[in-house]
Specification:
Blueprint lengths: L1 H16 L4 E4 L5 E4 L9 E2 L28 H14 L2 H6 L7 H14 L4 E7 L3 E8 L2 E12 L2 E5 L2
Length: 161
């Protein structure tokens, strides 16, 4: 009994710490999401998203803007989706997605989105109730991908499917 208590005492904080996802930017500028501190991967923590109404020192010629970490409203989420396409980075879509399925679902979605973000973005349309439809231009005409939306913890998230 005493041994079990000691095990819980030492493992308890570890179990909570594993729930933290660190959003990092690797040396090559790619977004990285990990359960380890960014420094352990040789990466830097991603810059926090500027608050609405606060001027940010952003270089308009920069090719890699900091990813949105929490979309408080639909317009911010739409912009985060557009930024993911501008950066051609499926991981940015993953960062604004509420993952409720298993690991296999996430991997399959990210692989599909990797091809999607390489296509020119035509529009991000929709509303909070019906979800977002992303229209892209492909070799055979325009394509569509639909995302449901979920509100959780004060943020609006993409829901794959």
């Amino acid at each position: 009994m005493r041994l079990a208590f000691l095990a819980l005492l030492f493992l308890g904080p570890t179990a909570f710490a594993q729930d933290v996802i660190h959003r990092c930017v690797a040396a090559d500028g790619q977004s990285v999401f990990t359960d380890q501190p960014c420094q352990a991967l040789g990466a830097q923590p991603a810059a926090p998203t500027p608050q609405p109404g606060v001027a940010a020192n952003v270089d308009p010629t920069a090719t890699s803007l900091a990813p949105t970490l929490c979309a408080a409203d639909l317009d911010t989420l739409r912009q985060a989706v557009a930024d993911a396409f501008a950066a051609r980075d499926a991981n940015r879509l993953g960062g604004i997605t509420l993952w409720e399925g298993g690991r296999e679902d996430a991997v399959a979605s990210l692989r599909q989105w990797a091809g999607l973000v390489r296509q020119p973005l035509l529009a991000v349309e929709g509303n909070e109730h019906d979800g977002l439809t992303v229209r892209t231009s492909g070799s055979g005409g325009s394509n569509e991908a639909h995302f449901g939306l979920r509100r959780r913890s004060g943020c609006l998230w993409l829901a794959p499917g």
